[in-house]
Amino acid sequence: MTRHDSDHYTILTEEELAADEYFQQWVLLPNDDSNRFWLSFVRKQPDQSGKIKSACILVQQLSGKESHLQPSLSNHEKRFLKSIIYRELGFPDPVEQSEKKNQNKIRKWTVVAAAILTSALILKFFPIKGNDYNTNQILSENTLPGEIKEILLPDSSFVILNGGSSIAYKTGIKEAGIREIELKGNAYFKVKRTTGHTPFIVYANDLKILVTGTEFNVNAQSKTTNIVLTKGSVDVMFKNNPTIADQMTAGQWLKSDTLHNKFVKGIANTELYTAAWNQKEWHFDETDLETIAGLIQAYYGVDVIFQNQAAKQMMITAVVSVKDFQTLISTIEKTLDLNIQINNKQLIIH
Description:
The protein has 350 residues and is an alpha+beta fold. The protein folds into three domains: 118 residues, no CATH class; 125 residues, Jelly Rolls (Sandwich), CATH 2.60.120.1440; 70 residues, Phage tail protein beta-alpha-beta fold (3-Layer(bab) Sandwich), CATH 3.55.50. It has ten helices and 18 strands. Strands 1, 2, 3, 4, 5, 6, 7, 8, 9, 10, 11, 12 and 13 form a 13-stranded mixed beta sheet that branches. Strand 10 and strand 11 form a beta hairpin. Helix 5 packs across helix 7.
């Protein structure tokens, strides 16, 4: 049985899938090969998508809490990972149970766990305010690592949701006196201006972003939230301290400094973002590697570490598909004569 056997992955439970080495490598550091396999797997077997998403959540949660876990695991480490998963979900350790009892209980527990995790994520990341939330259903959209989803909201606003990200919103967003979206991860927003100029609010990490009609990119994949405004203007404030606020105009970037409770702003090359989202291409025109490193972190969720500090100022001109991460790295290496190593969720530039 090979790791690329679709039939094999079909019969795995969520916990067994989360403990699979090839699956972990895709979740933690997707590449062109793994993206093709897993996205094809989901398209051919849509009934497996729920299991895939729940397993993704487990791997992502554990990779954050257990920093010593690497994509390549021994059989012992896989058993250990599976034990951690069950303890995280509050269930008895399956390693201590008989194999026959486990097979019957695991399927029941994983369905319950997936429902609990989904509900917990929505409740944690979507700010419930007022009684009207009791009568309006909260919807959520999620993407797998490496997947991009285009979402048309009921109010005709448009969201391009990057890989490993999610949004949540009310079904009555079109009729509401205020339109609210909760974002986890990375997304590009094209907000529809309404006749009554109904406010549109994006909650991302510790920030509240207020707009009426504009286009902007929000990256909330880490604790520091980054915003790039391509059209219009937005007001940004801290959710817990709205007196600390700033206004952005088109062509600016802004990020939150949570340590000092302030914002940092600068001039952005908005074409890098509009081309990436609208044309699915990176358009680099004498773009320095430090800027590209920020895009890589925002778009692919990969940290970039410069062992060679001088490399930050190196310039590159190229057009590369955003879907081909390996080609992007290879282009940088060959063009700038650098050595780039990929280690877990890190790019190390020598």
